[in-house]
Amino acid sequence: MKAEELKNIFSNIVTWKRGGERAPHKPLLLLYVLGRLDRKEPRFISYEDVKENLKHLLVEFGPYRRSYKSSYPFLRLSNDGIWELSGKNELDSKQDWSDQVLLNNETYGGFTKEIYSLLTKDRKLIRELAGILLEQNFPETMHQDILNEVGLGIELAGKLSRDPQFRERILRAYEYRCAVCGFNVRLGNRLIAVEAAHIKWHQAGGPDQEENGIALYHAS
Question: What local confidence, expressed as pLDDT, does residue 181 receive?
């Protein structure tokens, strides 16, 4: 496979769409894995290791949902021809499997050998693919923040970042409690499992303002 072929595949990744909103699950997983490759990490990653990191990305950069399913992109990417799954048993990637099934199956995922080999030899291509995913799926104001979160060392000159104080302002406004269930647990001084989410996603024009934020519990 050549670089241009891979860029074309990334430009046409199948994502769920409704109106002007596109599901960020696959793009965020791909960006997360590109960050790992940029740091020369192994081809395969276990679902156990990726589950919470991807959920955090979905909370931070996706639209508000009552629950966030890391399993969806981890399985479905194999239908795009760029991703492989392995585990104790072969799982049908077109079905929905629970977190527990994936964990018990010791499920791993990663780029195909051909794509992994191509990317590990071409760091510039990793950055080009990241740019494609960002431009097609996220507003410009999110780009640098996403790159920072996934560990891709790319500086976007002249790009506007999200308000870094948004999370703290929202949590403070809700007294560090989930707006729905009142959950408020700390480990030392660190708040556990409560995040600031956008009510209206940036991609749909939602601002980093208190009236567009809500504090929500998200289970592990």
Answer: 92
The residue among 95, 12, 27 whose CA lies nearest residue 61 is: 27
Residue-wise DSSP of 145-210:
HHHHHHT-----TTPPPP-TTHHHHHHHHTTTS-TTT---EEETTEEESEEEEESS-GGGT--SSG
Give Cα separations from 90 to 48, 75, 87, 144, 213 (angstroms).
Answer: 17, 11, 7, 37, 41
Q: Give the pLDDT confidence of 91-127 residue by residue, as tens digits.
A: 998 888 999 999 999 999 999 999 999 999 999 999 9
Hey, what amino acid is at 194? V
Separation of CA 155 from chain center: 19
For the chain, state the CA radius of gyration. 18
Report DSSP letters for 75-87, one per residue.
HHGGGGTSEEEES
Cα–Cα dist 140/119, whole Å: 25
Q: Where are the domains of the chain?
A: 3-150, 166-217
- Angstrom CA distances, 53 to 32, 45, 68, 195, stand at 9, 12, 11, 13
Please report, for residues 30, 32, 118, 151, 173, the alpha-carbon distance to residue 54 in angstroms, rounded to integers and kept in the order given: 10, 8, 24, 13, 26
CA atoms of 174 and 210, how far apart (whole Å): 10
- Residues 6+ away with beta carbon under 8 Å from 135: none
